[in-house]
Design a protein that fits this description.
By secondary structure, the chain is mainly alpha-helical. It has helices at residues 2-6, 10-13, 15-38, 40-60, 64-78, 81-92, 97-125, 128-148.
């Protein structure tokens, strides 16, 4: 996207990967501390909304330097998603920890292998911005669907934030 939309050099465009993964490392270090202070559910909601907003802003952005910053924010927000999802799920289903962990790990592996292929295919046939916007819409739909789910205690996830 950086190369196609902003016509920057390959070497400068590849810095986005370093920026993203640097933010991931920083985010993973901070995830536990922040999630404990806010509550896992509230933190999970915030990082999902932050990720979607960062993706949307990145798709709408026209400044390359702001794009680098948004890549950093995206890495920070996405850093703790899997760990916090695993904790929340195991809290809701303590008697099924082995099964839940296995399902989440398998889903993570499947998503990690298929989503890049799908996005790559989309970018082969459609402009980067169109593929990116479509991905952002799907992520937003996931956040909305996730928050409308009922937990085993019968209340919605949003009413159970604190």
């Amino acid at each position: 996207m950086f190369k196609e939309e902003w016509a920057i050099s390959n070497s400068l465009a590849t810095i986005t990967v370093t920026i993203y993964w640097t933010a991931m490392v920083i985010g993973r270090v901070l995830t536990g501390v922040i999630a404990e202070r806010l509550s896992y559910n509230y933190f999970f909601l915030l990082i999902n909304i932050g990720s979607v907003v960062s993706l949307i802003l990145l798709a709408l952005n026209e400044n390359v330097w702001l794009g680098f910053f948004l890549c950093f924010l995206l890495g920070l927000f996405m850093a703790g998603m899997f760990a916090i999802a695993l904790i929340i799920t195991n809290q809701h289903f303590p008697e099924h920890t082995k099964r839940v962990t296995s399902i989440l790990l398998a889903s993570n592996a499947l998503g990690g292998s298929l989503i890049p292929i799908i996005i790559g295919w989309c970018m082969d046939y459609y402009p980067a911005l169109g593929s990116f916007t479509s991905s952002s819409k799907n992520n937003w739909k996931f956040v909305v669907d996730l928050q409308s789910c009922k937990n085993p205690r019968g209340s919605t996830t949003l009413s159970n934030l604190r």
